[in-house]
């Protein structure tokens, strides 16, 4: 379980996160929605410790972090290991093949053998529909294909939670659909996921829990049915 209590993040005058209290259950998909600038990305990046809030508590299983104190590097690494992040702009390694993009971190960070990492990577590439692209380089792929490689790469680290920060906002609609299908499948397989998206139809279809942010505050958190049927 992953949980935030009374979390505040301030940029200058701007209260980007204002007293955030929320839990992200395991094996469920939480979707974060809200207007541009409402704090969605800051919230996700705080969970990955890419941002450091000024105050509040963060619980990740047995790890308990007090943001008002210095966070030990060891705990940051532990949390990064267990949270796979997929960004808006794919961020693949351009000089590595698709297969090596997926095997790089398992080999060098998790110390898997190249044979084991390759076998896992091939399975993951098949899962995202890209088995035949393993030897290509990222520049030969469409944006949607690149994003699916990024998802396979994140999954290869076997993270406990998967975070997606507007994973389709750089894509044309037809390419967006193929990425959303992969996300929907991962959700149906009961992965633990947190997704920031502007696509309300997708949010409605995939979410177990919806969070609506505005001006750094949670105005709604709960089941999607209530959120989408309220007047
Ligand atoms: P969203 O993801 O919902 O668009 P963000 O989390 O990116 O919102 O931003 C929330 C608020 O914090 C915005 O007002 C934004 O301008 C501000 N903000 C985000 N990052 C920074 C930063 N590095 N420095 C200053 N202000 C920032
Ligand atoms: P920093 O932001 O402190 O420079 P890095 O971005 O290098 O740290 O790494 C952040 C975390 O991501 C580390 O905890 C590490 O476990 C993990 N990591 C390092 N290299 C990779 C990689 N190639 N792919 C995925 N995760 C990685």
TrEMBL record:
Keywords: ATP-binding, Nucleotide-binding, Transport. GO terms for molecular function: ATP binding. Residues 2-231 form the ABC transporter domain. The keyword Nucleotide-binding applies. SMART domains: AAA (SM00382). It holds the Pfam family ABC_tran. Signal peptide: none annotated. Belongs to the ABC transporter superfamily. This is Amino acid ABC transporter ATP-binding protein.
